What does this fold into?
Amino acid sequence: MRSTPGSVYKKSLTQLGLIAVAAVQLFPIVWLLLFSLKDNSEIFSGNIIGLPKVWRWENYSQVFANGKLGLYLFNSIVVTFVTIALTSIFAAMASYAISRMRWKLSKLMLTIFLLGLMIPIHASLLPVFLILKNLSLLNTHLALILPYTAFGLSLAIFVLANFFDTVPKDLEESAFIDGSGIYRTFLKIMLPLVQPAIATVAIFTYLSSWNELMFAITFINKEEIKTLTVGIMSMVGQYSTAWGPIGAGLFIATLPTILIYVLLNTQVEKSLTAGAVKG
Amino acid sequence: MKRLGLIAAAVLLTFTLAACGSANKASEGSNEAAVKNLTIWTTWASDGDTFKAPIDKIVADWNANNPTIQLKVEATAGESYKTKIKTAAAANELPDIFFTWGAGFSKPFAESGTLLPLNEYLNDGTKDRVLAGSLENFTYDDNIYGLPFTLYVGTFFVNEELFDANGIAVPANYEELLTAVKAFREKGINPIAVGGKDLWPSMFYYDVLALREGGADLNLDALKGGTSFEDPVFVEAARKLQELANADAFADGFMGLSRDESEAVFASGQIPMYYNGSWVATALESDSSAIKGKVKAMNFPLVSGTTSSGDEWLGGVNDTFMVSSNTPHKDEAVQVLKYLTENLSNEGYQVGAGLPTWKTTEVDESKINPLLADLVKQTESATGIVPPWDIYLEGQDAEKHKNLVAQLLTNNITPEQFAKEMQAINE
Amino acid sequence: MRDKKAIMIFVLPAFIVYCLIVLLPILISTYYSLLDWNGISQGTFIGIQNYIKLFTGDPIFIKSLWNSILLAVLSVFIQLPISLILALVLASKVKGSRFYRTVYFIPVVMSTVVIGQLWMKIYHPSFGLLNDVLGSLGLDAWKREWLGSESTALGAAFVPIVWQYIGYHMLLMFASAKSIPDDIYEAARIDGATGLKSALHITIPLIKPMLQVSVIFAVIGSLKTFDFIYVLTNGGPVHASEVPSTWMFNNIFNQYLYGYGSAMAIMIILECLLFTVIIQKMFKTEQITY
It folds into this structure.
């Protein structure tokens, strides 16, 4: 493609616009970093946006001084990754059946699965607590994994069913003609095709479970099972709270999230281009 | 195949976790025979909580001295602690002993039978060792459910340095308060701090004005449903609060600020006056405080021509520990409760966390937070104490009262309408 | 394919977990909503009294409903178009697309605690960024007590909600736009459709299913929005920025009206269902015109 002066002008204008938006979107993380290096007097009065007057790196050492940080991190990782695995697998299977198989209730099923997005979460706190109690799951990792997975399924199935809908039927049909069974076709043909969608779903599932607070606070009492966000928020005091170290903790907790997003996003990108070549 | 492996791994992991869960349970069960384990819930998870170090020390001491009764503390920070204990109570999952609040907050707990009545355990002289009246907020239907460990009073914090620097006199009565407010405004200084977003901090100002107008006995009577809230004193208190608001007494944008945010500006030395609980004293006198040593703690300015004296305070004993009626070790739990609250009262006062509620308190006076020590002296002659109304009233009524004060402050209702709406609670 | 056994095998794992943790609690909440119950003691069965009170005796609930519908409208007509434009631009072989996509998503990955704190600082009446900027532009008359005044609190609290999820919808739309095979664009280019034209006539119609997903998510998300309102205004001042979820939370946990709050929860679910059906109908009729 040759570029005319007009298109160069247009291109740099687009870039300018994109950079402006990028600045706005980057602001929160930069601000959080600055926030994490201040003390309460700067955070709350006077210098609430600007550079810290004194760079309080000790906020970070204070977070790391909490000997349980590693444990909390481990719990968050276990809970989040099992949740992602379960959600992706269960949702991929269910949405395949809903989208590609012909049965009377498939549309209704999709709507039923959508209900999970509509519940005001605080109203389900007590019912879910009672159910987990009856299953003797309170104070275990599963007390978080199960609810996160169940509530994550709604979004995952809705997005995945939508993607399955767009996959051309002939791919599957030719597989069947080749004598491939339904399970094999699902695993070998369909799953690879919707990989970008699964990666997308994984990102969203990750976000909702990594940052979740209410269930994590209510269903877990034991130190040994507490997650990272709960650990960080436990620095909130009854009458006074030092926000600087909390900022430091939240900054640390945000970094893996961005890293994982970049990784999964690359995955989305790769599979998209791979799919395009095949198509 | 890779994917199949993943599925298998996930399923395996799930079962391992489930197994871990039940394994834990089993081991706990076997311990129980020899050692009685009691769990205590608190809301002090942060090292910044002044009661955290005391309770850690008390529990460690207990565990060292009582090998057969072992305590374990589980802490949940912030507002979510309230959500958590309400949910746990509904599901019958309260721990043996837990931190909670008295009066309106625990009334549904007491009525539902989730709490252990302590009456029969307190005839060993315990009742005489706690401050007179300090069990009142934990008593429902003549049953006592909690023991006190800290007392707080509504305290008027004054930044004397700001007053001196601007040549303004610290107000001793309401008229002087209004004058001081106007004088500070003229100098471009926000006169009074308050976090209106959290509702209760602004309610403190109404409740103390009502106390000043009507006196402790009348206020308590009205809260109990006797005297009408349409009594002129309550209308007048509402009028005064609105007068203050309309004189821009409260910091700019106070209705949108949390207690945290508004308090921090006072603590940074930019606002001269603040009325809130005595617990604020701890942070104001800490080493990192910008106004350490510059603050005076006193009772709210008087209103001339009324019966209320400076010996009447807003405040009370509301923080407490209670015992679940479900605990398998009732005697031990109550024994721990007594030990815990008495020692917390002592230790808490020593480290400046709050005012003591047990008469046994023996502390090294020289090391006490000077603001708290001063408050202890001032309250020694107290003749009446009225709890903040949202504490005294039950959930729905408390919420209504707080919102009515907010409506007063934003000029949505008149003092007369305020009084009428308040009286609707009692009808 | 009508293999019943296969359908069972595919759907059951998800359905069992879902029934246990999502559907069962909805049933339990429905039961609670028929009780006069403080959440701890024994409740009393009162039929649909709570629902009657919702619509005849609770102006705050009605107001909160309208507030949330306003948010839904703002999300669909402000948030989604911005997401769509960004997604289309980034999908059109622009330089640095991957970098922008990462950066634009950052607000989504940050916890609401952080974003809430940030906006509290932006709106702070005395030291806030917004009033500072207005001041330095000489627009002192425009300064407001953003979260503290009844006239601005609702709008001010909505801005971060609308803003935070721009990147979220952008990602959904981008993934969908990217999965359109290149040859379709090629064919269109030969026909002379490039840039805006190709976006309007090819990309948008083709990603319509995903747009429907976005609209449904945005509307449902708005109708049960909670976090930011809770952090920024707590529904105040004087309920000016109350939304159904915050009012429900207040009733259940502050006022001990568990039965009544549960009725609100059920109403929120029904409202979301209603809107979802309407949106699906709208997208269906539109599809016929194409």
